[in-house]
Design a protein that fits this description.
The protein contains eleven helices and 13 strands. The chain is of the alpha/beta class and about 290 residues long. The protein folds into two domains: about 150 residues, 3-Layer(aba) Sandwich (Rossmann fold); about 130 residues, Hypothetical Protein Tm841, Chain: A,domain 3. The strands form three sheets. It has a six-stranded mixed sheet with strand order 10-9-8-13-11-12, sandwiched between helices. Helix 3 crosses helix 4 and helix 5 runs antiparallel to helix 6.
């Protein structure tokens, strides 16, 4: 292997793929109530069920940023041993991880000027990062160099489309995505916002549906507006502990598009802490955002 491929643990990745590939993870921490959890690899589904049950019980959660020192502690010894590194970060529109990683790399290169480290802003989260990591390994296995692989990922990041249905408007209110009045009225009327990650890597509300049935149809409509089978037929469905909803969406997709490869994952706590339980994401390659 010519270089190591890293991502942070905010990604969602197919478990079989992860078990068969040497994905390196940048750990992150999240807090649930009075307990702090150090997450150094994607959590198990059992752990995530417990996490989301606590969110349903209104236990407070928060996450912490990765510092430049954190990256230096991980990348520095590997560079000293002669390793080259490709790192895919959580969207710069959602976190400071990308900027922290760049600062760390600049510091490392002051000590090791010949260090080969490529930091790529995914402009994605959750299964979008999973799709890009799958592509990064396919590129490497096909013989693509570190630098060319990083360039490919930068070129294709905005061809990953991410659509989200949010169940609990109060989490969007807390994050400043909707007003308090909208959250209260929307909850009373069973409104389900549909969001996407835009070109700047930030979340934005693009539609509102009443009830889950209409929300599922809305997600399929968004998918169809951007889906391009020539860009890839792998789809990620990431759910915040709502397997029944995820399977309903999967069945709806496969009924219309039987040739899709659908990856089912549980939403990581790093993202789930901000979106709440029962969120559902549909993610795929397609036309550029």
């Amino acid at each position: 292997m010519e270089y190591l491929i890293f991502s942070d643990v905010s990604l969602d990745i197919d478990k079989d793929f992860a078990e068969n590939h040497d994905i390196r993870y940048i750990p992150m921490e999240y807090v649930v109530g009075d307990d702090t959890f150090h997450c150094d690899r994607p959590e198990s589904d059992e752990m995530m069920h417990v996490f989301y049950e606590k969110l349903r019980q209104k236990v407070k959660t928060q996450t912490s940023q990765i510092t430049p020192t954190h990256y230096m502690d991980i990348f520095g010894p590997l560079v000293k041993e002669g390793n080259a590194i490709l790192y895919l970060s959580l969207s710069s529109g959602l976190s400071n991880t990308y900027e922290s990683a760049l600062l760390a790399v600049n510091n490392i290169k002051e000590v090791y000027p010949e260090a080969r480290i490529e930091v790529v802003d995914s402009y994605c989260a959750t299964g979008g990062m999973g799709l890009l990591i799958e592509s990064a390994f396919a590129n490497m296995e096909a013989g693509m160099s570190l630098e060319d692989n990083a360039a490919w990922l930068r070129e294709h990041a905005l061809k990953v489309n991410l659509w989200f249905k949010v169940e609990d408007l109060m989490y969007l209110k807390r994050g400043g995505r909707v007003s308090a009045a909208t959250a209260v009225v929307g909850t009373a009327l069973n409104i389900k916002p549909i969001l996407r990650i835009g070109r700047d890597g930030r979340l934005e509300t693009i539609d509102k549906k009443r009830g889950n049935k209409m929300a599922f149809k809305g997600l399929i409509e968004k998918f169809e507006s951007k889906f391009d089978p020539s860009a890839g037929n792998t789809v990620y469905i990431s759910c915040a502990d709502c397997a029944e909803d995820a399977n309903t969406l999967k069945d709806m997709l496969l009924e219309k598009y039987p040739d899709l490869t659908v990856r089912m994952t549980m939403l990581s706590p790093i993202i789930g802490a901000h979106t709440g339980p029962d969120m559902l994401a549909l993610i795929h390659y397609g036309a550029e955002r």
